[in-house]
């Protein structure tokens, strides 16, 4: 608790320059449970300068030194996994066991995968007479979201450390406490001072300084497309590298060869997981027109079997959404779906009847949605599923690709047919037939879903510059 009102800069917990404070609200109760300091531009400057100083030494550490550091961090993350999961559950409303197993667990998984990838990564190799070297990009500004907080922290920090970068992290002010625990772990693991720095604050203040500062060589941002555009504009005058993982409106195509019942049930579960607050959630379910009535029945049954309730209740499937702002946005879009004539299958506006407090949303399904409707175009970021019909596979691909986003797609069907269909889709990720999460797969999108890729060896590439020493082999 004594670290909540401090920032981690240059290897120590330090007092902020100003006196700004922000309450961290439990979305299940709508009541504050913690308070953090809010950084000023001067706090961000101090952290950036610490990272710049540290880069001189950390950038030339050996592979073995960095590998040992990541292994120590991994061990400590595993020890504090449940503590981190419980904090995430309080901050953003994920059911407690899900927060431990998936929200916190995926942070552990990223360090595992980065260590594995690091051992195989070609940091130096010969290309003809040229020595090709992957060197650290420099000081990295990291801006991370609230919906999968440790996931996005770990998949940036782990490869940055592995490649010899130094960094300043600004986590979301909605879910900042897990980042403070993460900073405590890095300190205990012996990260050299100045290599990792944490400054809490908002985007227009701390985030803007990170994006625009000439001593920041790269900005790695995860969040909304709207905010990503602002970050890119601020970064442009310094011509720094800008890596962005932004919004999505992912299609889930059920081919005629699929087991319809299983595919629809899995689609509902994946859409509503984490209360629908995932950028890659399959929020558009595309099904054959002739199967629409059957799909509606299966989807309704699957959604109405899900229990919405307190994150601490082991029977809960869906907790609250993360904030009042998020709740209000989702309610507005549900109302928009009704106004525009989509068929409301289940759910709808308001809280579930058994809950009178907290940012709880009724799991909502709309059917016979057309791709020009608002609920099919905009990222809702809540437990809202749109079901669209298609006539043939050409039309299915056209509907799937008819979006400004291009993060993820899902396909259900006979394996060879699904693999062939995947080639038609303009997204960075395609998941076939309820496939498991793969920490080695590249994560990132086409179009307005961003640029660059995270996870495994792809994350290592993002945090390196390439140098060629010609004549090295002469």
TrEMBL record:
Highest taxon of source: Bacteria
EC number in record: 1.2.1.3
Molecular functions (GO terms): aldehyde dehydrogenase (NAD+) activity
Residues that span the membrane, as ranges: none
Annotated keywords: Oxidoreductase, Plasmid
Domain Aldehyde dehydrogenase, chain residue ranges per copy: 13-467
Pfam short name (any one): Aldedh
Keyword Signal: no
Catalytic activity, reaction form: an aldehyde + NAD(+) + H2O = a carboxylate + NADH + 2 H(+)
Keyword Oxidoreductase: yes
UniProt xrefs under InterPro entries: Ald_DH/histidinol_DH, Ald_DH_C, Ald_DH_CS_CYS, Ald_DH_N, Aldehyde_DH_dom
PANTHER family in the cross-refs: ALDEHYDE DEHYDROGENASE, ALDEHYDE DEHYDROGENASE-RELATED
Family named by the database record: Belongs to the aldehyde dehydrogenase family.
Name the UniProt record assigns to this protein: aldehyde dehydrogenase (NAD(+))
Organism encoding this protein: Rhizobium leguminosarum bv. trifolii (strain WSM2304)
